[in-house]
Amino acid sequence: MQDINFLFLIFAFIFGSIIGSFLNVLIYRLPLPREEKRSIFNPPYSICPNCEARIKAYDNIPILSYFLLKGRCRNCKSKISLQYPIVEILTGFASVLAYLKVSKYLFINNQINKMALIDYFFIFSFLALMIALSFIDLEHKIIPNEINVIGFLLGIIYTYFRPDMTLLDALAGSIVGGGLLFAIAFFYEKVKNIDALGMGDVKLLVFIGSFVGVFGAIFTIFIGSLLALIVAFAGYAVNSNKNIREYEIAFGPYLAIAGSIYILIGDKIKAFYFGGL
Length: 277
Ligand SMILES: [Zn+2]
Known about the structure:
The chain is mostly helical. The chain folds into 2 domains: 1-137, no CATH class; 141-277, no CATH class. The chain is built from 8 helices and 2 strands. Strands 1-2 form a two-stranded antiparallel ribbon. α1 runs parallel beside α4, α4 packs antiparallel against α5 (145-159) and α4 (114-140) crosses α8 (252-273). The protein binds zinc ion.
């Protein structure tokens, strides 16, 4: 643990929170209907969703600005969603977790190990996309194709660098993950007549599978379903007048949490499962 440099931890957090403020833009702009969809970089600056005033750089500091402005737009004084600092804090922590995963081999003979930087880049990108799609799914009950396609391509490119997974492993993870979830969705829709899963969730498993392989994809579906069930039943218990069959939940965030657990400690989970520990 002496390899973990405290300054690097702080730097990883700040870097993550800056990416988090970009994720807030994605979360806001990606689900917009096409006619009012601004492209992600147009305008290239942040605007207030209420009055469309340009947000000045000094009011756009991740996490801090929200609290300095007391959660209100400087121009129109409308409330800024608490989601903005939450996403920035979460992304900061995601960056720290990705850094901790590679910190043991970040330096070899006092030189920066390129492989650690590459691992950090792909792991953090994975986690950042999980955060973005979770917040979009929670609010809009959709997972944008753009995120699943970019994620899947990153997973495929990553196999070129990583020693623990081949291109074939990644494709197998995508096919088994997406296929299994598609079979579950098909079963519920045709046999039970419950429209429980969207194709967005199936495509999400294609993305996650490309990063975590077959075992990781099955783990993600199993743990994601378990988490979703626990929360659904807890929600049902609180809201008992609701019909459980109509109790709609976004499944994406649970798959995202399970996939994130696996990308961070999957090697240990796999070793434990196969009796290696
Ligand atoms: Zn405003």
